[in-house]
Design a protein that fits this description.
binds fe (ii) ion, dioxygenase, metal-binding, Pro_4_hyd_alph, 2OG-Fe(II) oxygenase, alpha+beta, iron, four-stranded antiparallel sheet, binds 2-oxoglutaric acid
Amino acid sequence: MSVQTITPELRQWIVEQATAGCSPDAVLKAMLASGWQEDVAVQAMEETLATYLRERGVSPDAAVAAADVDPRPMPAPDLRDSPNVLWAGDREVSVVMTMQEPRVVVFGGLLSDDECDELRALAEPRLARSETVRTDTGGSEVSDARTSEGMFFQRAEHPLCERIERRIATLLRWPMDHGEGLQVLRYRPGAEYKPHYDYFDPAQPGTPSILKRGGQRVGTVVMYLNTPEQGGATTFPDVKLEVAPVKGNAVFFSYDRPHPMTRTLHGGAPVLRGEKWVATKWLREGRFD
Ligand SMILES: O=C(O)CCC(=O)C(=O)O
Ligand SMILES: [Fe+2]
């Protein structure tokens, strides 16, 4: 695929459409219809309109407020006053690292050591070779991309699951019923989870049926239930970020559209020594019943 660039003519055209009263959605649709790639089109619109407003002394926040456009609500911790510690309803959680693009926040001490151990013990008897959702059919299958063993809890299946779900809901300000049940994975030495996106690929024929229950995934929390002796980081290859798996810590990332431009490609690097245990919580845009 050729690389498309944002030309002065394209910028000019976008400003003309916007000042003529076309909605951003309509401008984007027109660009897609004339062959622009979605990520280039969105970036061109965002850049052009931000520059246009800045030149006229209007802050983007004021413009959004004036246009009464609600940006899509997303799960996110409240980091407005740069806190180093957050209250998650029943426990203090520390903020270890944040990144804007992709949106990534690493939390320290989301789970206690005892909670990690108890969750592992509850999950262990039910572990089976991990299956991956097949978006072509909507079913699931064992895949080489994922050499871990895993299991799913129902939401609130156990008081411990419920406590963790409530804590995450408080921390990320996202309703408990907009999330899937916890998934627990065990990686043995050599096991890995190759880089992937957690959202369901809209181009796949099985996706519409998956989306009927809860809509798209919009965020992921990967909680580390132990500290592997070596290896097993959660990697974000697009931005060359590696999050070390440390017992009780968690990495949260969100994606406001099911598109690679969110740069949320991520994977579990091979475990080199010891085992790696994680619990994953996926957040949906709607109620997951
Ligand atoms: O094991 C990891 O670090 C990542 C897990 C993951 O990507 C997932 O469960 O979707
Ligand atoms: Fe993932």
